[in-house]
Fold this sequence. Notes:
- By secondary structure, the chain is an alpha+beta fold.
- It has one domain.
- Helices cover 29% and strands 32% of the residues.
- The chain has helices at residues 13-22, 43-48, 62-73, 80-83, and strands spanning 2-5, 8-10, 30-37, 51-59, 87-92, 95-96, 107-110.
- It has a 4-stranded antiparallel β-sheet with strand order 3-4-5-6, sandwiched between helices. Strands 2-1-7 form a 3-stranded antiparallel β-sheet.
- The chain is globular.
- The protein starts with a strand and ends with a strand.
- The relative contact order is 0.21.
Amino acid sequence: MKISIYGVRFSGRDEMIKYAQSGQPKEGLYVGIKEQRFPCFDIHDYVHENRYTCSLVFAFDKRELQQKLNMLEYPLMCKKEDLGPVIRWVRTGHCDGSMEIPQCKEIVIRQ
């Protein structure tokens, strides 16, 4: 699946993650990734819970990217429109689930 975000084409999730991990922009667009462990309420959860919510955010400069990554830490304290498009999925162990891609003008999907 090919995804264009703000007009920048990515071949899929793996390429977006690669750019997020490298810290380098693709055609001027920075990608940030945040993984948050599912909530744990007792020792059993901490031992057995291996699910993470993964989120990708996009920005045109490093400062804006860092602000968006910080907003993901406190999602109830930010407006959805301040984050721009966010692509999310649940990772269990080493298996990635289906991506939740918002329907918005900033994202175009091609098969």
